[in-house]
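Data deposition worksheet. Section B asks for the primary sequence of the deposited chain exactly as it was used as input, without tags or linkers unless they were present during the calculation. Section C holds the resulting structure in token form. Section D is free text for depositor observations; keep each observation to a single sentence. Incomplete worksheets are returned to the depositor.
Section A, Depositor: J.P.
Section B:
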Amino acid sequence: MKKVLLSAVALLAFGFANAQEGKGNGGFSKGDVFVTGAFTFGTTNDKNNDVKTNSFEIAPQVGFFVNENIAVGGKLGFGSYKTEDTGVDTVDMSGLTLGAFGRYYFTPANQFSLFGQLGFDYSSMENKLTNYKVNGIDAGLGLGMNYFVSSNFSIEAGVAVLGFTSEKADVSGAKASTSFNFGGDWRAVTFGVNYKF
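Section C:
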């Protein structure tokens, strides 16, 4: 976590230094389009128990400023998770996520701007080994910020404040499992890069 925070501070300092040299860096305005999202790949190999795990996710997001302060957008994601125990597949899951979000930017035309975000996601994951599907919805409210390091690129950070999740197996008689969370978890701050067209 220290490395992530130090990297973020270094990027912010670099961006601030560049901003002093060339004014006019950054900011959003009506009609702007931005792209952000997630791309992750992970693998673990527990040689003591002969367990291997691989995971992958790609989830691009696109947003559009409908006026000076409000941006709306959507995302499409794909993820997979596979576990192999002593050479035998025990989990092989994959699925899609569709989402929509709305943001309110408090100072969109500035190089540094805070925003509030309301988002809604629908996901469907299938275990290929058992032909078992789980469908879920997520709704959340969060806070974030953009800091422009150039006229097109910004660093984005966010934290969830309010969240609701409901998951249900796609089988007859299954009941939904729900959870509700309130409060910012500062150990789970997300960082990313945002590109503005």
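Section D:
The first strand starts at residue 33 and ends at 46.
The chain is about 10% helix and 65% strand.
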